[in-house]
Write a structure and sequence with these properties.
The protein is mostly helical. Helices cover 78% and strands 0% of the residues. It has helices spanning 2-15, 19-39, 45-68, 72-86, 95-108, 115-126, 132-146. The longest helix is centred in the middle third of the chain and has 24 residues, at 45-68. The N and C termini lie far apart (49 Å).
Length: 148
């Protein structure tokens, strides 16, 4: 189980005196535990990956804010945290792979007037391996180009 891997790595990081890794892993475990309490059952590995992906997104959003505030030292800390979290996530799809999925979903769709519905179908196809903002942008670009 993914949660067990995170716990084992946290213990190893404690022994190796890696405070940043310990901090990130401890936080992830607490988020996983909160989610388990909310759902009132143990999380599956897919559920854990969703929690991890949400944490990566939060940190990417924070990096954007830190860039605007010119807080470079904090950006490096957030990027390190992202690297630790992403080591537990499947490798993301390239933009080209996402484009091909978008093309396939749009080609199969009978109604392309609702971009939200198509974005939802693409997100279901990529199963968390692509950023929602990227999918949204690509779908909207394809729909805008196809209507001309």
């Amino acid at each position: 189980m993914l949660k067990d891997d995170i716990q084992a790595r946290m213990q190893k990081s404690m022994k190796e005196h890696k405070p940043l890794d310990v901090k990130v892993l401890r936080f992830l475990l607490s988020q996983i535990n909160y989610e388990e309490i909310a759902k009132q059952k143990p999380l599956t590995d897919d559920d854990v990956r969703q929690v991890l992906a949400k944490e990566v997104k939060k940190r990417k959003d924070a990096i954007e804010l830190f860039k605007k505030g010119n807080r470079l030292e904090t950006i490096a800390d957030e990027e390190t945290q992202i690297a630790v979290i992403q080591s537990y996530l499947p490798k993301g799809l390239s933009e080209e792979e996402v484009i091909s999925i978008v093309d396939r979903v749009i080609g199969a769709a009978s109604d392309t007037s609702n971009p939200g519905k198509i974005i939802g179908q693409v997100m279901a196809s990529v199963k968390g391996q692509a950023d929602g903002a990227l999918v949204s942008r690509l779908v909207r670009e394809k729909l805008a180009n196809s209507s001309h």
